[in-house]
Design a protein that fits this description.
By secondary structure, the chain is α/β, with parallel strands linked by helices. Helix content is 44%, strand content 15%. The chain has 16 helices and 13 strands. The strands form three sheets. The chain has a five-stranded parallel β-sheet with strand order 6-5-7-9-8, sandwiched between helices. Strands 2-1-3-4 form a four-stranded parallel β-sheet, with helices on both faces. Helix 7 links the parallel strand 5 and strand 6. The chain is globular.
Length: 362
């Protein structure tokens, strides 16, 4: 079955430079030679030529499940950002090496929180709410040390695909959830669960007790870290209003890392995997406007020529874009040697607990 990119090349609508053609040929030759010993995972936000070379594409939850389930591969090459490759390394088996084509592919939201800040906040929350009253839930977009923190404190990891069951699990038995680092995913999920504005508060790590009074902490059910995704918070209410006016009858679907105001105006909201399915299931002739990273939107437009697929506004993730044919080829030619992602065993064991709880919720 031809990919969207191969179809475009055949029709002459996309030209591949000679150097790129050679890189693709070398990558395909390496894949053919290694067979099941090599697994290339590609996130939905990767550029078209990278996705075409992957063995499996998905959102962070789907890729985590694939990494955890694979037993044959000796080498797992993760075409995404660092925290995703790190999670694959946590879930991998002893005989497997996990690599990322560019170690600089980080995440600005993940950088908005560190272990020291979370431990300080946790101590303050316990003092006010009492021991055992709070459950930590960390978004996948975070470093391994924070996943380990949740593992040892009885919490779990979540992705945008399973944030609702994860927060519902955490809120069971009347407990509070301390959710970090994305306040918008937390708030939008809290809204889905029927929590009111007074049930959710934002924790500012720069202020004592997060800038909250003791009573506000005791009353809150969901405590949200003051973090955000710059890719998704760039979408604004006026973008939705303008596109709906320009395309009457169009459907707007956005990612839950968008602000509450943008989500409220959209017709649907969900993870990247949800968005892919939403476009696939829309009837031919539909106009679908998508609020997420531009590479996914453009690929969906190519893959569904019977529908009009448009971006809500241009928003590129520069870290995802760091992965390219050149560094992917270099990684494959140096399997097990360059850009290997490792996690200290003590952190790995506790982070595995939190990730395993996430997978169990599915």
């Amino acid at each position: 079955m031809q990919t969207a990119r191969q179809r475009l090349l055949k029709r002459g609508r996309l030209s591949a430079p000679e150097e790129e053609q050679e890189q693709v040929a070398r990558i395909r030759a390496l894949k053919a030679r290694l067979g099941p010993e090599l697994l290339i995972l590609t996130h939905h936000y990767q550029r078209l030529e990278i996705v075409d070379l992957g063995d499996f594409r998905g959102d962070s939850f789907g890729l985590s499940r694939k990494a955890a389930a694979d037993r044959e591969a000796r080498f797992i090459v993760f075409c995404g950002v660092h925290f995703m490759a790190e999670s694959a390394a946590i879930l991998s088996r002893p005989h497997q090496a996990v690599q990322i084509p560019d170690l600089r592919a980080g995440c600005q939201m993940a950088d908005m929180v560190d272990l020291g800040q979370v431990e300080a906040a946790w101590a303050e929350l316990r003092d006010v709410a009492g021991p055992g009253a709070v459950v930590p839930v960390v978004y996948m977009n975070s470093e391994a040390a924070l996943k380990a923190f949740c593992g040892r404190h009885g919490g779990c990891v979540c992705t945008s695909s399973n944030a609702r069951p994860a927060l519902s699990w955490g809120l069971s038995s009347g407990k509070k959830v301390f959710f970090f680092p994305d306040q918008h995913l937390g708030r939008n999920t809290g809204n889905q669960l029927g929590l009111g504005p007074g049930d959710m508060v934002v924790w500012d790590p720069e202020l004592p007790l997060g800038g909250l009074g003791p009573e506000a902490v005791r009353r809150a059910r969901l405590i949200l870290w003051d973090g955000y995704c710059h890719v998704h918070t760039c979408f604004r209410v006026e973008h939705v209003q303008r596109m709906k006016a320009a395309f009457p009858g169009a459907l707007v679907v956005v990612h839950p890392e968008c602000t509450q105001a943008v989500v409220a105006l959209a017709d649907a909201c969900g993870s990247t995997g949800f968005i892919v399915n939403y476009v696939q299931q829309a009837p031919p002739g539909s106009t679908i406007i998508i609020g997420t990273e531009i590479n996914l939107v453009r690929r969906l437009a190519l893959e569904h020529p019977d529908k009009q697929v448009l971006d809500l506004a241009y928003s590129l993730c520069p870290n995802m874009f760091r992965i390219n044919l050149e560094n992917l080829l270099r990684t494959l030619e140096n399997l097990g040697e360059v850009n290997v992602v490792t996690v200290p065993e003590a952190i790995k064991a506790e982070a595995w607990l939190a990730l395993d709880r996430m997978l169990a919720l599915a």
